[in-house]
Amino acid sequence: MRKIEHIGIAVKDLEVSNLVFEKLFGAPAYKFEAVESEGVTTSFFKNGPNKIELLAATTPESPIAKFLEKKGEGIHHIAFDVEDIISEIARLKKEGFVVLNEIPKKGADNKWVAFLHPKNTNGVLIELCQEIK
Ligand SMILES: CC[C@H](C(=O)O)C(=O)SCCNC(=O)CCNC(=O)[C@H](O)C(C)(C)COP(=O)(O)OP(=O)(O)OC[C@H]1O[C@@H](n2cnc3c(N)ncnc32)[C@H](O)[C@@H]1OP(=O)(O)O
Ligand SMILES: [Co+2]
């Protein structure tokens, strides 16, 4: 894992939260993207080398909808940039982590992604991201 790729924040209303983070960073989101397979719509903000992903649910079954129901708005996951997601998944499986999708899926912002179950990472949902070249 090379660096934090983004921090995902679950929000109830993307429009409202876009304005909050635009004020916070003094700049608008650089990207808005829906990821149907995850039942989410996202916006991305860059602040220097850091990236924030706001996520709102578009379906009741969405992981974000369930998270909001259970925990309310807040940090949802930490995503890490990886060189080779396939070998990283194999390494982490060997280390005993539960990989929620062993076959990388298409994420937002042009990435292949996979997730580790938070039960093995002290309650923090971890996302692996590999840039799609
Ligand atoms: C891919 C697009 C975009 C991108 O960056 O490219 C994204 O980041 S999409 C992000 C949304 N997608 C996901 O989160 C996919 C991975 N998540 C899952 O598979 C589930 O959300 C899972 C397995 C983490 C939890 O699902 P489950 O149906 O088991 O929900 P429960 O409410 O029963 O949770 C079980 C247990 O886990 C705790 N939990 C749930 N979500 C989180 C979280 N985000 N962070 C930390 N902990 C979480 C929940 O509290 C339950 O704990 P318990 O102690 O049993 O109460
Ligand atoms: Co993410």
Automatic annotation (TrEMBL):
Source organism superkingdom: Bacteria
Q: Does the keyword Metal-binding apply?
A: yes
Q: Which residues form a coiled coil?
A: none
This one is known as: Methylmalonyl-CoA epimerase
One Gene Ontology term from the biological process aspect of the record: L-methylmalonyl-CoA metabolic process
Q: Which GO terms describe its molecular function?
A: metal ion binding; methylmalonyl-CoA epimerase activity
- Output the InterPro entries linked to this UniProt entry: Glyas_Bleomycin-R_OHBP_Dase, MeMalonyl-CoA_epimerase, MMCE/EMCE_epimerase, VOC_core
User: Residues in domain VOC?
Assistant: 3-131
Keyword entries, A-Z: Metal-binding
A Pfam family per the record: Glyoxalase_4
Q: Which family does it belong to?
A: Belongs to the methylmalonyl-CoA epimerase family.
Write out the transmembrane intervals.
none
Q: Can the keyword Metal-binding be found in this entry's annotation?
A: yes
